[in-house]
Amino acid sequence: MDDSAKGNWWRRLTGGLRRTSSALGGAISNLVSKRKLDTATLAEIRDVLIRADLGLDTADRIAAALAEGRHDKALSPAEVAAVVAGEIEKVLAPVARPFAIDAAQKPFVVLVAGVNGSGKTTTIGKLAAKFRAEGRSVMLAAGDTFRAAAIDQLKIWGERTGAPVIARAPGADAAGLVFDAVRAAKERGVDVLLVDTAGRLQNRSELMDELHKVVRVIKKIDAAAPHAVLLVLDATVGQNALSQVEIFGKTVGVTGLVMTKLDGTARGGILVAIAAKFNVPVHFIGIGEGVEDLVPFSARDFARAIAGLDS
């Protein structure tokens, strides 16, 4: 990424996380500018961090780091922000892992899951564009057979990226369609097969059972597949994302996360709580609608943006 692109990306990221960073920065500034860092101030800072969706563990971790060697000292808001960013980065660094495609697996089957409205189908389209730009052949499977709009959307992405789309009429059996798609991708020697799935409400057991069925039919053709299971999370849903990671993880064995909609109304702190609790790799974040707006996840950039610091 050249300097101008990097600068533009940074502006978009900080803009997307402004809701979190402003609330965090404003509250912390009010606390530390008026008094020393005593036990009461630390407790209030901890509460601010919890309200920012960072989670109990991370809030305790940051409060402990602030207390270390600084108790009863006057701190500037910038000094506090630097500690906050540093501790958040420590939580995120272990999960910030690039998405890797094993070229020995052909097709490399990527199952993409998530609830309706998370940006799942759009994310698949952006991934298709990314992989095509890397010179890989890509096929798309329109496994969200419940929604005609999702099928149409995937077909548009297929045309845009030059990726064939395996689709059927709305209401068709999703598992059967995915079975045909894996077989077709194998026969054609496709590098990557991206499989869309219906937007599951994680509390609807019969829908989750169907998702499990999709995984079972994939394994009938390739026991090692799906080779990756990406869960797409909407950054605006806050705490609800935690239960999504837990239940999808149990149902389909999530191997990595994509967090979308980090573009203004986001509650980005929840990604820190997810990292601390589940330790699931975070591969990409989305900060807008364009293909270039899905980017590899950087722990340092994300941590500094949440804390309201410059890049």
Plain-language structure description:
It is a single chain. With 311 residues, the chain is an alpha/beta fold. It has 2 domains: 93 residues, SRP54, nucleotide-binding domain (Four Helix Bundle (Hemerythrin (Met), subunit A)); 190 residues, 3-Layer(aba) Sandwich (Rossmann fold). The protein has 12 helices and 8 strands. It has an 8-stranded mixed sheet, with helices on both faces. A hairpin with a 7-residue loop joins strand 7 and strand 8. Helix 3 packs antiparallel against helix 4, helix 6 packs parallel to helix 7 and helix 10 packs parallel to helix 11. The longest helix has 17 residues.
CATH architecture of the largest domain: 3-Layer(aba) Sandwich
Low-pLDDT windows of residues:
none
| CA-CA gap between termini | 14 Å
CATH class of the largest domain: Alpha Beta
List the helices and strands and how they pair.
Layout: H1 3-16, H2 18-32, H3 39-51, H4 56-67, H5 77-92, E1 108-113, H6 120-133, E2 138-141, H7 148-161, E3 165-166, H8 174-188, E4 192-196, H9 205-221, E5 228-234, H10 240-252, E6 256-260, H11 270-278, E7 282-286, E8 294-296, H12 299-306
Helix pairs in contact: 2-3, 3-4, 4-5, 5-12, 6-7, 8-9, 10-11
List keywords for this structure.
311 residues, alpha/beta, Four Helix Bundle (Hemerythrin (Met), subunit A), eight-stranded mixed β-sheet, 12 helices, 8 strands, elongated
